Predict the structure.
Amino acid sequence: MTTEERIAALAELGSFLGQFSEEGGRREENPWNTQYYGDLQQLTETVNIYNPWFSPENVRNAIAAVAQNLEKDKLEKWIAPYRKQLDVKKPLRVAVIMAGNIPMVGFHDMLCVLISGNRFTGKLSSDDKLLLPFIAKVLISIQPAFAAFIEFTEDRLKGIDAVIATGSNNSARYFEYYFGKYPHIIRKNRNSVAVLTGKESVAELRGLGNDVFQYFGLGCRNVSKLFIPRGYDFDVFYSSIVNFGGVVQNNKYMNNYEYNRTVYLMSSDPTLLDNNFLLLKEDAAYASPVGMLFYEFYDDVNALNARLQNDREQIQCIVSESSAITNALPLGTAQCPALADYADGVDTMKFLAGL
């Protein structure tokens, strides 16, 4: 395949997937609907049987995030800096070891490998074994040449040329041990934070609610900590996110929330706040448990910005409406990464183009 053929096939896949961004979005003219629409619709509604965190709404959100980036113009602009290298390089076999914390979290790595002209060997998480193989099946139907470039395996990885692996801080040590001899990208735990000024509108705080609650807070781009000015009015925050209270209808979320509430109530922590679906607790750490946000007061936003930039190795992204925070995203956009918003800030396409 040429690069143009790969882009065309991926854009067609994006057109098909774009129908699943919300319920009832079917477009009758899409040529792949007869073969795949019903099956993907059913998978969207039933995959939570295998992983209760994967609610139909969150699966649709994940599919929508993929579809919005699979547009021809976006794909061409994204890979433009690497085109000369990609058009002449020999295909290599790249193993991608995927996490399973949110639906299709490994798609971007698969996309990078395929659009760069390399061969993708995916090792799926047991928590997310169904969605990506189905998406790959649709892509192969659109462009049969991809069949020779896509493989999923549960076996030991052999005959590979490079590795991209995502996991916990603990698993990263094993990845380094086993795959250190190959060119590699190995990702560890990261969390995202929000910096509030106290001047945010209700609409902006609702957007922050999406940054917090989408995927039940399990993604590295989910906000797990708030930095707030001293004297901040928590009632404004809580009243703005009241529409997210439905998260407690998910049994796994509710179990985590109730467990943490019990633990911290027993400890009589005076900083603990509760609105019956989200706990807030003052804590210096970045990573908070499911159903809870840590918060920390600040006095000088410029000093806070310096601290956050110094801690970038622990932070995936920062959301804030403050112009004093370097490279901050607007509230409500943490879960809408563009193609060039690489995990951990490591340029995957540059890595692949330079193999």
Notes: The chain has two domains: 3-189, 191-320. The chain has a mean pLDDT of 94.
